[in-house]
UniProtKB/TrEMBL annotation:
Keywords: Cytoplasm, Endoplasmic reticulum, ER-Golgi transport, Golgi apparatus, Membrane, Protein transport, Transmembrane, Transmembrane helix, Transport. It is found in: Cytoplasm; Endoplasmic reticulum membrane; Golgi apparatus membrane. Signal peptide: none annotated. Its main location: cytoplasm. GO terms for biological process: COPII-coated vesicle cargo loading; intracellular protein transport. Coiled coil: none annotated. This is Protein transporter SEC24. One of its GO terms (molecular function) is zinc ion binding. SUPFAM superfamilies: beta-sandwich domain of Sec23/24, C-terminal, gelsolin-like domain of Sec23/24, Helical domain of Sec23/24, vWA-like, WW domain, Zn-finger domain of Sec23/24. It comes from the Eukaryota. SMART domains: WW (SM00456). PANTHER family: SEC24-RELATED PROTEIN, SECRETORY 24AB, ISOFORM A.
Length: 1467
């Protein structure tokens, strides 16, 4: 296209506009260029080099090319001219399609930011030299803050100030987390840390720092921000600059993690941020929404950015500002300085978008009914009431000139645009509580604009009321035929999910008519219009002028000004609804347990209320005491309790007793049920606590014991204690059987009492996560998992499987789901004993008495018939593999274990492929001992030479298979080929087992060197210990991810057995097991000539072959409403948001799942259920279901007292590895350390006398006693620890263990076992009731080593037998059969079994060490001499993690650094 005439001014503006939008959108990119790469030039004073765009937004004259000339012509302009003088951009106030509100060019305050279209990229650079920008606080209430000049740098948000007292405590602004760290620093510190220049993020930036989405965020942010312009007028005109961007530091673009490959088939689900995506576009057309990825970009840039103006909202911080019963965002409405018309710009902006304003302004009689009838859960009207209401509304339309909209708030039923257009036109909105009624704030603004909200009788929630009154909308709460408004609202009592919402339709309609047609109805105060008129005056809303006209009724005189001399308002001004219905029939107020359900943020007050009068049906209906204003309408004692509860929210909990010594048992008042009425001086928390206890019918409370970590050394026996008891309310479980509670080794939660709100969870700083080992082996004495063969009962709404935590109702004909409260029919077959063909005993059913149970899955659970198990062995037969003896060991182990391969139904198939740089296939004829080798040398495009008989039925082709295994060693004995075509071999293996799927056991002795997936030696000692080291821990080659995902789709698992004597890139290879639910086994420098090596590999290989596996498994974890599985750790592929694809599942693999609390938990307990749909290796489709239940709590001390340190550690190990991969090893260590410090800080400030001040003690809950040393164990683990000496292969293998070992193996891997053998008690090493008795474990410090002693240290992977140099000859003789210490040699060994009791006891202990844990690992045994080879000695001693080693601190040092951090944190 050519310009045929010079562009008009308007066209130029358009071009510049587009360019600038582009430049702003890519501001990240350009700023990198600007302050990143050109940093050096700037420093050198070269300045230039940025020739791409000149100050006028064009390339400099000399640099323009023909294309540019073609587009722009030979025009030039000055920077100030490009956007004109602003006239053409300013629109007439209050009109225009978009942006009617943005009428002024300059904004409030003195932001340097030019308006959109004026700034150029260059202006983002800021050299401030020594005069580092200081933060300025503009507006603040807890949780909602406007602040200028916050400096974003290198992972933290810095408030630079030397006037600390001008700022509120940091946690009142934002609760820092590791993703969003806030700091206050002095200008001096800032100069040192931040430097003298940086980028500038111009204009107004909003940040939603909540960790869970909420639909209040947008208006809370706007409310906070709008307080900067108290002059917003009734037309919505404002001087505020439009917000440019809204940042969500915690949410990614999508709900699922970033796919590791181009998975085009998965439709990704956008994250829910609490705001309808179209709303932002319509109401905030200038604003860009930025997510975690953008946020991460900024931090990754490593240059400081000054955010000119930041409006930040954080509901967790808002807790410091809200009163009981208020919604958490209520404090946003307390930011001072706001205009009564604060919301008007946004409302008009949206109304303009819908053209519901201006010339198309609707009449005042527009009513919208928001319905949610087709929702399968949640509150609804009965269908009868709904239809009657719709009819009556249509009648209003026909007979009385109303405009009526019936809209649905379900996106699938009605578009957002359609719904919002209706609302924007309306002046009255009605609907059932919970149906997005907050949208009512977009209704047109008239004096009678009203929101009418239906509740189940006796229930109420304030959320909508707070919003409505803040924007000047009248509010009516509705129970059946009763209405409440003004200051006569009911007490807060949240409705249950499926409670009935009856309405008297004729009463509703008459309320609508009264409200809408009552033109002189007194408006709400926010309208800034008369609430009190002198006698004889009325006010009438004038639609055309959008203001009141005042009329003196006697004379007919009218005026715009409000008449003077108001008198007191009549007392009966508020109620709208007919009062004749008051005091009519009322539903009996439910007593007892249900009341305790409502334990949310505001529970303290609620509980206090219920405690006072739970059975008094009248109490709740009593209006507030006249003139009360505040919602303290519960008389007498309950009111007092409520007040105390409110106070309690901001006080230290009562069990803190000043000067009480640590370590002693405290707070006896929590153990008893306090009698109501007689208490005094007991704080609110305790009240609430007791109220809950009472509601739950005497649920035992957790007791928090505080200890001082400085004087409490780690006690290894603690690790063998069970986690804090799960204390469910009585009656939660319908079965008395002990099997109704799952063993924690199947499924455990980091908190055995779940906080009711995410803010409480955030406060505790302990992550909520589930650790599952669902396919755990049975311990000795364990009964097999029961199998249900007849019927599967599931909740028809949430699909939960029936379990011991459901309730039978309706005379046993129905059961109530313990997750979503749905009432479900009991299946007919449920009470029928199919085996005996007679009525059965329901109470004997396995699924009601066992929390771990399997069901036989009927055909609807199958996408295809169950497939047989398939095993394909890929054996490296290159020179290195043969020479190390690996091939011989592997084939022998295979032969020896053929019988152990699961093959109950004689359906298992096997195949074998050998490879060096070619592939060798073997065709085995059934029934014969012959096999034929087929060589494929073309490895670029792998094909199968002959599809028949390469994959054979194990039992049919057994003779050929055995014969082949016996020959392979000889066949390749002389193989001198060096190199590995592992990738092509894997491709061939996966092709061979297609379309069935199964397990590939890949044995590899060297770095893959040819074909797909070939790798280079990237081991570089120079980068070990540096920030680049983590790159060596990531896959070098995308093949290992894409192929892994292909395998996952084809139901193929890969297990890796790695043997190289040199670098093998374990990090890349381990990706295959990682995504396919396999496992990596590593035998560095394997040499079968050492029998220990051969035994270890043969043992582990054999165990893997013999292991029963689950095939074609998909796993899903469900939980009670309000909980959401947020992120997943472990070996699998996340197929959709929460479906874990596991082609085959090995035993004893562990997975960790982080859980978000999305909604306030309102039930006394929650349920989490893992379901694994799988095929057994004998071809039966089954479901394994594991169900656990946990009490909920709104009490922080209970959260701490219920924390499970083992589960927390398991999660942290996973998180550390994940962070080391996505960031750096150092970040992983920082993360884990900071997590620990955060827990201490919050514990100190909320649970101890020290509060925010410094303390000489370091307090923590006794049940978390081992957490610090376990964290130290993570920090010192080979996979994570700071060192420049650890080969990347060793690190990568260790990381694979850290993310897959079950707790039972992981904990000793982090905190090894250490025994003194020479002084062990006489019974140790002998057989007792529970097998071999182990010696008492010692703390992991070399202080316990003695020069004459014999010690055993083991971490589940390796056993060290440490011999002191002064060990007496008799000891050496008894154990090693050698005359003295001198002749003993260190190193890998097998201990002789000698004919003396001591030798036998030591051997028994070693044997037990190898057998006592689940898993296939067979630890090597090393003899370590006190004065032996230094590397071996150092290795063994590095297991003593409480010692100082090199740069790694001792436990004492570590715990003091924790203490320093805890005391030094800027709280
Ligand atoms: Zn359900």
């Amino acid at each position: 296209m050519r310009w045929t005439s010079p562009p008009t001014r308007r066209e130029i503006s358009l071009i510049i506009f587009s360019l600038t939008v582009f430049a702003l959108s890519y501001n990240i990119d350009t700023s990198i260029r600007l302050v990143g790469l050109n940093k050096l030039q700037n420093r050198l004073g070269l300045g230039g080099g940025r020739t791409t765009i000149g100050p006028d937004g064009r390339r400099p004259l000399g640099a323009r090319d023909s294309l540019e000339k073609m587009i722009y012509g030979d025009w030039a302009w000055d920077a100030e001219e490009i956007a004109g003088d602003g006239v053409e951009r300013s629109q007439v106030k209050g009109v225009g399609r978009h942006g009617a509100m943005w009428v002024d060019k300059r904004e409030v305050g003195s932001l340097t930011s030019p308006s959109l279209g004026e700034s150029t990229v260059d202006q983002a650079f800021w050299r401030w030299g020594n005069d580092i920008p200081r933060a300025i606080l503009r507006k603040h209430v807890p949780g909602y803050t406007v602040i200028d000049n916050v400096i974003l740098f290198n992972g933290s948000m810095n408030i630079v100030t030397d006037e600390n007292d001008l700022f509120p405590p940091l946690q009142h602004m934002v609760l820092s987390t590791d993703l969003n760290v806030w700091k206050t620093i002095t200008p001096q510190q800032a100069r040192e840390r931040i430097g003298s220049f940086g980028g500038r993020i111009r204009g107004v930036t909003w940040m939603a720092a909540d960790s869970s989405p909420h639909n209040s965020t947008l208006f809370a942010l706007w409310r906070t921000y709008s307080a900067l312009d108290s002059g917003i007028d009734a037309d919505g005109a404002t001087k505020l600059a439009p917000p440019r961007r809204l940042i969500y530091p915690y949410y990614g673009f999508f709900t699922d993690p970033n796919p590791e490959h181009a998975d085009v088939t998965t439709r990704r689900q956008r994250v829910v941020n609490g705001i309808h995506p179209q709303l932002v576009k319509a109401a905030f057309p200038f604003m860009t929404v930025m997510y975690y990825e953008d946020w991460e970009d900024y931090h990754a840039m490593q240059v400081p950015f000054v955010i000119e103006r930041l409006v930040v909202a954080d509901r967790s911080a808002a807790q410091y500002g809200v009163k009981a019963q208020e919604p958490i965002y209520a404090s946003a409405f307390k930011v001072d300085g706001a205009s009564d018309y604060w919301w008007e710009p946004i409302r008009r902006s949206l109304a303009t978008y819908f053209e519901a304003y201006g010339k198309d302004a609707p009449t005042t009689k527009v009513v919208t009914y928001v319905q949610r009838q087709t929702h399968t859960h949640g509150l609804r009207l009965s269908d009868k009431d709904h239809l009657a209401l719709v009819d009556a509304l249509h009648k209003l339309e026909r007979d009385h000139g109303y405009e009526v909209h019936i809209v649905s708030n379900i996106d699938e039923e009605m578009s957002w645009t359609e719904r919002m257009r209706a609302i924007a036109r309306s002046s009255m909105m009605i609907g059932v509580h919970d149906s997005d009624l907050v949208d009512s704030m977009y209704m047109q603004r008239t004096p009678h604009t009203t929101l009418l909200e239906f509740f189940p009788p006796q229930t109420f929630a304030r959320e909508q009321e707070v919003v409505a009154s803040s924007v000047g909308i009248r509010y009516i709460a509705w129970w059946n035929d009763q209405s409440f408004s003004g200051d006569k609202l009911p007490a807060v009592a949240h409705p249950q999910d499926d409670e009935a919402v009856p309405i008297d339709v004729s009463a509703v309609i008459s309320a609508i008519r009264q409200t809408v047609s009552h033109q002189t109805y007194l408006p709400s105060p926010a309208m800034a219009s008369p609430s009190q008129l002198p006698p004889g005056w009325i006010a009438e809303w004038n639609e055309a002028n959008q203001r009141y006209l005042f009329i003196e009724t006697a004379s007919g005189h009218t005026q715009w000004e409000e008449p003077a001399a108001p008198i007191a308002a009549p007392a009966d001004m508020a109620p709208v609804a007919p009062s004749t219905h008051g005091g009519g029939k009322r539903r009996q107020y439910a007593a007892g347990q249900t009341q305790a359900y409502y334990a949310g943020d505001n529970a303290s007050a609620d509980s206090g209320y219920y405690a006072g009068g739970a059975n008094d049906a009248n109490l709740i209906n009593q209006p507030a005491a006249a003139g009360g204003g505040q919602q303290l309408f519960t008389p007498g004692l309950a009111g007092e309790n409520q007040f105390q509860a409110q106070q309690g929210g901001q006080q230290q909990p009562a069990y803190y007793q000043p000067d009480a010594g640590y370590g002693q048992q405290q707070q006896p008042q929590q153990q008893q049920q306090p009698a109501y009425g007689g208490q005094s001086g007991v704080d609110g928390l305790t009240n609430q606590f007791s109220a809950m206890g009472m509601g739950g019918g005497g649920q035992k409370q957790f007791q928090l014991n505080t200890i001082n970590m400085l004087t409490t050394p780690p006690e290894p026996m603690e690790l063998h204690r069970p986690p804090p008891e799960i204390r469910l309310p009585p009656g939660s479980c319908i079965s008395p059987a002990p099997t109704a509670v799952a063993d924690p080794s199947y499924q455990r939660l980091t908190l055995n009492a779940v906080p009711t709100t995410s803010s409480l969870l955030n406060k505790a700083k302990i992550p909520l996560a589930l650790v599952i080992t669902p396919y755990r082996t049975l311990d000795e004495g364990d009964e097999p998992i029961p199998l249900v063969t007849d019927v599967i009962a599931r909740c028809r709404r949430c699909r939960m499987y029936i379990n011991p935590y459901v309730q039978f109702i309706d005379g046993g004909n129905r059961w109530r789901c313990c997750m979503c409260n749905m009432s479900n029919e009991v299946p007919q077959m449920f009470d029928w004993d199919q085996a005996r063909n007679q009525p059965g005993d329901r109470w004997q059913r396995a699924e009601l008495n066992h929390s771990v149970v399997e069901f036989v899955a009927p055909t609807e659970y199958m996408v295809r018939a169950p497939q047989p198990a398939v095993y394909i062995f890929l054996i490296d037969v290159s020179h290195a593999a043969v020479q190390s003896g690996m091939v011989a060991t592997a084939t022998r182990a295979l032969l020896e274990n053929l019988d152990r391969i699961p093959d109950e139904g004689n359906i298992t198939k096997v195949g074998i492929i050998c490879y060096d740089v070619s592939l060798y296939f073997f065709s085995m004829a059934p029934g014969s001992t012959d096999s034929t080798m087929l060589v494929v040398s073309d490895i670029d495009d792998v094909f199968l030479p002959k599809p028949a008989d390469l994959l054979v039925n194990l039992s049919e082709a057994r003779p050929a298979f055995e014969a082949l295994l016996g020959r392979i060693g000889d066949m390749f004995q002389e193989n001198s080929i060096i190199g590995s075509a592992l990738g092509p071999a894997l491709q061939a293996g996966s092709k061979l087992m297609a379309p069935i799927g199964g397990k590939i056991l890949a044995l590899s002795s060297s770095l893959p060197s040819v074909g797909e997936g070939s790798l280079k030696n990237r081991e570089d000692p120079k980068i070990l210990g540096t920030s680049k080291e983590s790159s060596l821990l990531q896959a070098a080659n995308s093949f290992y991810k894409t192929f892994a995902i292909d395998c996952s789709r084809a139901q193929v698992t890969v297990d890796m057995f790695l043997f190289s004597s040199g670098y093998q890139d374990v990090a890349s290879l381990a990706n295959l097991p990682h995504y396919t639910t396999g496992q990596t086994y590593y035998y560095p420098a394997f040499n079968a000539a050492r029998s220990e090596d051969a035994i270890k590999f043969a043992h582990e290989f054999g165990e893997v072959m013999a292991m029963p596996i689950m095939l074609e498994c998909i796993t899903r974890v469900r939980a009670s409403r309000g909980l959401r599985m947020a992120s997943f750790h472990g070996n699998f592929f996340v197929r959709s948001t929460d479906l874990l694809a596991m082609p085959t599942v090995p035993e004893n693999q562990s997975y960790a799942i982080e859980i978000d609390i999305e909604d306030t938990l309102t039930t006394p307990f929650v349920v989490i259920q893992s379901g694994m749909l799988h095929t057994t290796c004998f071809g039966e489709r089954r479901l394994r279901v594991i169900t656990t239940a946990y009490p909920t709590t709104s009490n922080l001390s209970e959260v701490f007292a219920s924390a499970d340190q083992i589960a927390i550690t398991t999660l942290l190990a996973n998180k550390a590895v994940e962070r080391s991969l996505s960031y750096k090893l150092e970040d992983a260590r920082d993360y884990v350390f900071k997590k620990l410090v955060e827990i201490f800080v919050t514990y100190k400030s909320s649970m101890t006398a020290a509060g925010a001040g410094a303390s000489a003690q370091l307090a923590l809950a006794e049940n978390l006693k081992m957490l610090p040393v376990l964290v130290l164990g993570i920090l010192k683990n080979v996979g994570i620890r700071q060192s420049a000496q650890i080969p990347p292969d060793i690190r990568a293998y260790s990381q694979a263990l850290l993310t897959s070992l079950p707790s039972q193996l992981l904990i000793p891997y982090l905190y090894p076992s250490f025994y003194a053998l020479h002084t062990m008690p006489p019974e140790a090493g002998t057989v007792g009731e529970k097998g071999v008795i182990m010696p008492p474990p010692l703390p992991l410090t070399s202080e316990r080593l003695e020069r004459h002693g014999l010690f055993l240290i083991e971490d589940g992977q390796t056993i060290f037998l440490y011999v002191g140099r002064d060990a007496v000859p008799q000891l050496i003789m008894d154990v090693f059969d050698l005359p003295n210490y001198e002749v003993l040699r260190g190193g890998k060994t097998t201990l002789p079994v000698l004919d003396n009791p001591f030798s036998q006891r030591v051997n028994a202990i070693i044997q037990k060490t190898r057998e006592m844990r689940r898993g296939v690992y067979y630890p090597h045994l090393y003899i370590v001499k006190e004065d032996g080879e230094p590397p071996l000695r150092l290795w063994a001693l590095s297991a003593l993690i409480q010692d100082r080693a090199d740069v790694l601190p001792s436990y004492q040092q570590f715990i003091s650094s924790v203490k320093e951090k805890v005391n030094g944190v800027g709280y």
